Amino acid sequence: MLLTAEIAVLFVLAVAVLARGGHEGLSAASFNPASLATTGIGALFVVTFVVYIGFEQTAIYSEEAKDPRRTVSRATYLADAIHTFISWVILMAGQGPRRSSR
Predict the structure, then answer these.
(1) DSSP per-residue codes, 18-35
(2) Alpha-carbon distance values, 35 to 27, 32, 42 (Å)
(3) What is the pLDDT of residue 12?
(4) Residue 83 half-sphere exposure, CB side, CA atoms within 13 Å?
């Protein structure tokens, strides 16, 4: 139940960000491989590693599924798609106007 609530909150956030857009609008530039050559790439890899801890756990749940080959692969791809989408939305939300320090 809590996981469902978490996903619902994330999708409400996604709708709000997509409706408002970022400071310069919505962009897919973050998917460009050339954008990986930045100074913060090390921190990005650490966050990516932490997010995917437990990724292999889907194989354990295959014993509880009626059709494990189909169900587990679908659930894994769906979780990856949702994670990528929400990560992109959060990136777009963080591109809002910066406040001056005055």
Answers:
(1) HHH--TT----GGG-GGG
(2) 13, 6, 13
(3) 93
(4) 12
CA atoms within 13 A on the CB side of 30: 17
Instruction: Give the residue from 20, 44, 36 showing the smallest Cα distance to 93.
Output: 20
Q: Rounded distance, CA 31 to CA 73, Å? A: 24
pLDDT (tens, 9 = 90+) of the chain, 102 residues, equals 888 898 899 999 999 888 887 666 788 877 788 877 777 777 777 877 777 776 677 777 788 888 888 888 888 888 888 888 888 888 888 755 555 555
**DSSP class of 90:** H
Inter-axis angle of helices 2-20 and 68-93, nearest 10: 40
Phi and psi based region of residue 60 (left: phi greater than 0; alpha: psi -120 to 50; beta: remaining): alpha
pLDDT at residue 88, as a whole number: 84
